[in-house]
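Long-time lurker, finally posting.

We've been working with GerAB/ArcD/ProY family transporter (Alkalicoccobacillus porphyridii) and I want a structural starting point before designing mutants. I don't trust myself to interpret raw outputs, so I'm hoping someone here can both generate the structure tokens and explain anything notable. Sequence follows.
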Amino acid sequence: MWANGLKWMFLIVGTLIGAGYASGRELWQFFGAESNVAILLFAILFTISCFVIMNLAFKQQSTQYVPLLTTLVGDKLAKAYDWVIFSYLFSTTTIMLAGAGATLEVYNIPFWLGMAGSGAMVVLLFLKDTHGMTTINAFLIPILILSLVSILLVFQSSLGFQFTFEWSHQHNWPAAITFTSLNILPIVAVVSAIGRQMKHRGEIWIASLGSGLLMGSISYLYNESLLQIAGEIMFYEIPLFVILKQYPSIMVVAMSVLLWLAIYTTAGAGIFGLISRLRGHIKGESWLIAMLLIAIMAPLTTFGFSSMIAFLYPLYGVVNVYLLICIILYPFFHHPALLRNKKAD
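Top reply, 14 upvotes:
Generated this for you. Predicted structure of GerAB/ArcD/ProY family transporter:
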């Protein structure tokens, strides 16, 4: 139970910690100053959302997200959100590939070569169908988390651990709603694909509580670090490079590896969700479908990493607020005691 619970936790966290998050660009887009309460609220909403989604996937023994969406929002809206989720998975995976190109440009590697190389590595994940995705996440995500937290703690240590919190200056709390609604999209897609692989309800508690705690803690530490370099972020495609610019080149190398791992796991999760959805429409080996999808995405990466995040992420966050509300309220409207009362009436 514990092993599987941790495996699902790392799958969830790996789905979220992509190039946008690990680079700091996504966090800065939503949070920044006056966001301590917002991050706490995000952690709570995210934990509840993961728990509800995993419970539904387990109950339905799902293999893709449409049945789960239908349960949450009904038949008509499920069709609309099907397109939204598919579009999200496609566009964010494209953003990950763009992030790969931007990361490796630091070493004078051409953008297209970094993007194509990362895409090829994602395809390799699916040579053993989709089982390789969960296996690689269980290995890479702990390394990714430890690396990111270590870099941020070293930076905070150099500043004397400057953390700020004032209740009277916490006006950015609504950002928690849009940030959570943005991040539940990949969770719905990826978790619904592993419904049949979950064996015990205890796995759901471990994965949902663990992922909420991890994402909340890392987001707080990262946001506080970004606040210390706020004046310079606008000049960098990847904010994390600002944190590391005064450090030895080995730290920049470590950060580049960190970003690439984040890109790799999130792009893999995105392709995983897309393949699961397309299974009934496209026949063929998983790696061939993955190669086809990445070939279609490649030309779109030229729009630029930070530009795509700035435009698409807030848009998806707003569009999915209704889905978030449905997820949060689902346990209340489908509680056994409430259902018994309705039958009695």
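Before you design anything, note these points.
Residues 75-104 form the longest helix (30 residues).
DSSP finds 16 helices and one strand in the chain.
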